[in-house]
């Protein structure tokens, strides 16, 4: 059949999400999900959803939730917008700030959805390679991003796990002539974050997700904080009812259960460090991580071979082909039992170094 799609869509490969295997009894460490359940209060809130709130349309602005988020960060209500996962937020950002004559600058490696969102807009992509084995932000990032209307970065970065210096992000916000997106999907696992910079720089958008730290990947809740002007513009770009009533109620309950979040995050951070050490003891190179995953290069640098070996043993991690990323795998920090299972098979292959 003749295609009636826009040329950009016909040319598009589309985003490849991490595998969601149907099999039970696998150790699933491939999509950075939280290995623990969400807050029990979130489940209680879900059970308490009234038939009436299913019958009626939900609050299009998720006002109660956004007000609670604004209060925690000390910003105005008009500075917060919620989305159906942070991918929904990212879609609004790329729709709003990229076009054939408005290029996007992205770091490499970074979240592989960004180039796909840019391609949907027909926007040119400026790719800025991270430097060395520590995947550092290049000093001349601003020079390289020259001409872009949107500079998108993940902090802590995915899939590498490291966090760029906050001072560098501040300098970018101050000097870049365009919008800066700092995707903080993993910020709850990090030592610091860039949320306070939003008060200083109107061209900064900080996005967050409940998928990882709040164990909400299946519920879909993300949000962004920016200047009131930018949030007002993004509001025009979103689907009218992008968040159902149940997720709004559950997310508010999870957001308020700060003690539960801190406990789970602390456990994952501890286990991240011990998993990193065990892998390094077997000769792996492992990037120092500020997130809930590790970017690890097996001895010999055959990331794909290690990925396949684990897969044959029902341990699933994420592999990104490519000259740099292909030497590594990305391993989500699981429960201590899951991590032990990964290490047991890894020792079979690399234990003797
Ligand atoms: C860097 C980054 N941003 C955003 C997302 C999207 O998360 P969600 O749409 O589940 O909020 C992910 C998911 O893996 C991610 O790694």
Topology:
Elements: H1 7-11, E1 27-28, H2 40-47, H3 51-55, H4 63-73, E2 80-83, H5 86-97, E3 104-108, H6 113-121, E4 125-129, H7 141-144, E5 150-154, H8 166-175, E6 179-183, E7 204-209, E8 222-225, H9 228-237, H10 245-256, H11 258-281, E9 285-286, E10 293-297, H12 303-312, E11 315-316, E12 329-332, H13 336-350
Parallel strand pairs: 1-11, 3-4, 3-5, 5-6, 6-7
Antiparallel strand pairs: 2-8, 7-8, 9-10, 10-12
Structure description:
With 353 residues, the protein is an alpha/beta fold. It folds into 2 domains: 7-37 and 259-350, Aspartate Aminotransferase, domain 1 (Alpha-Beta Complex), CATH 3.90.1150; 40-257, Aspartate Aminotransferase, domain 2. The protein has 13 helices and 12 strands. It has helices at 7-11, 40-47, 51-55, 63-73, 86-97, 113-121, 141-144, 166-175, 228-237, 245-256, 258-281, 303-312, 336-350; strands at residues 27-28, 80-83, 104-108, 125-129, 150-154, 179-183, 204-209, 222-225, 285-286, 293-297, 315-316, 329-332. The chain has a 7-stranded mixed beta sheet, sandwiched between helices. Strands 9-10-12 form a 3-stranded antiparallel beta sheet. Strands 1-11 form a two-stranded parallel ribbon. The N and C termini lie far apart (55 Å). 45% of the residues are buried. The mean pLDDT is 96. It binds pyridoxal-5'-phosphate (PLP).
């Amino acid at each position: 059949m003749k295609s009636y799609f826009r040329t950009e869509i016909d040319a598009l490969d589309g985003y490849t999400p991490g595998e969601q295997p149907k099999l039970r009894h696998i150790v699933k460490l491939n999509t950075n999900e939280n290995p623990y359940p969400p807050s029990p209060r979130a489940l209680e809130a879900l059970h308490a959803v009234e038939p009436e709130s299913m019958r009626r349309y939900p609050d299009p602005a998720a006002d109660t939730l956004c007000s609670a988020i604004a209060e925690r960060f000390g910003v105005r209500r008009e500075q917060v917008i919620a989305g159906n996962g942070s991918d929904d937020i990212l879609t609004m950002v790329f729709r709003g700030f990229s076009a054939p004559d408005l290029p996007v600058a992205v770091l490499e490696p970074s979240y592989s959805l960004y180039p796909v969102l840019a391609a949907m807009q027909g926007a040119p992509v400026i790719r800025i390679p991270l430097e060395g084995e520590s995947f550092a932000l290049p000093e001349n990032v601003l020079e390289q991003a020259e001409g872009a209307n949107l500079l998108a970065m993940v902090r802590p970065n995915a899939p590498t796990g490291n966090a760029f210096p906050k001072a560098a992000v501040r300098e970018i916000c101050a000097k870049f002539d365009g919008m800066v997106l700092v995707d903080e999907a993993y910020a709850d696992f990090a030592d610091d974050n860039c949320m306070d910079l939003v008060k200083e720089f109107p061209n900064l958008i900080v996005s967050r997700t409940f998928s990882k730290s709040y164990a909400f990947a299946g519920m879909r809740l993300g949000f962004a904080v920016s200047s009131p002007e930018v949030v007002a513009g993004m509001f025009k770009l979103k689907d009218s009812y992008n968040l159902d009533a149940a997720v709004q109620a559950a997310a508010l309950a999870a957001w308020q259960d700060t003690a539960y979040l801190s406990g789970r995050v602390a456990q994952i951070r501890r286990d991240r460090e011990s998993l990193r050490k065990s892998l390094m003891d077997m000769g792996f190179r492992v990037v120092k991580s500020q997130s809930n995953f590790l970017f690890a290069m097996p001895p010999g640098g055959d990331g794909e071979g290690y990925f396949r070996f684990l897969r044959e043993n029902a341990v699933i991690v994420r592999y990104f082909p490519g000259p740099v990323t292909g030497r590594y795998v990305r391993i989500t920090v699981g429960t201590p039992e899951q991590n032990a299972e990964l290490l047991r098979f890894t020792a079979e292959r690399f234990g003797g170094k």
